[in-house]
TrEMBL record:
The keyword Electron transport applies. This is Periplasmic nitrate reductase, electron transfer subunit. Its main location: periplasm. It comes from Ruegeria spongiae. Belongs to the NapB family. Component of the periplasmic nitrate reductase NapAB complex composed of NapA and NapB.
Length: 145
């Protein structure tokens, strides 16, 4: 009796998987931009980079990047952001220096190099751009207090 229940359950698994797959394939997916999901949209039509610094919307917001980073390499071996923004080079490159928090390890100890937890800049910082909203945004910036 128990063996027939297990065999029946095992036989039912492929049926459920195939029916789930068929249902997923028939589902209609809508794009947030209103076009076809697989339609290629040229990047320059979606947004334009904004030169100069934009005001932050809330306290502790990571600064936006005021330039293109399209060709920047950031991986475990190379971080091209540091070629200008590391404290050893920022002065000669006329670039903002990284915050001192980027040179603290998890225990709060000061380091001479950027902390591994802050190495991948694009985890927090994004290029600023004038983009059309995908959905209505009701966010209100802080009052500055």
């Amino acid at each position: 009796m128990r063996k027939s229940i297990v065999t029946g359950g095992i036989a039912l698994i492929p049926v459920l998987l195939l029916s789930g797959f068929a249902l997923a394939q028939s589902a209609q997916v809508d794009s947030l931009r209103g076009g076809e999901v697989d339609e290629l949209v040229p990047l320059d039509q979606v947004h334009k980079n904004v030169e100069g610094r934009m005001q932050r919307n809330y306290r502790q917001q990571p600064p936006l990047i005021p330039h293109s980073v399209a060709q920047y390499q950031i991986d475990t071996r190379t971080n091209q952001c540091l070629s200008c923004h590391d404290w050893t080079k920022a002065g000669e490159r006329n670039a903002p220096t990284l915050s001192m928090t980027h040179y603290l390890d998890r225990d709060g100890n000061e380091l001479d190099r950027i902390a591994g937890t802050r190495y991948f800049c694009n985890q927090c910082h994004v290029p600023q751009a004038d983009t059309p909203p995908l959905i209505e945004n009701v966010f209100q910036p802080s009052s500055g207090n």
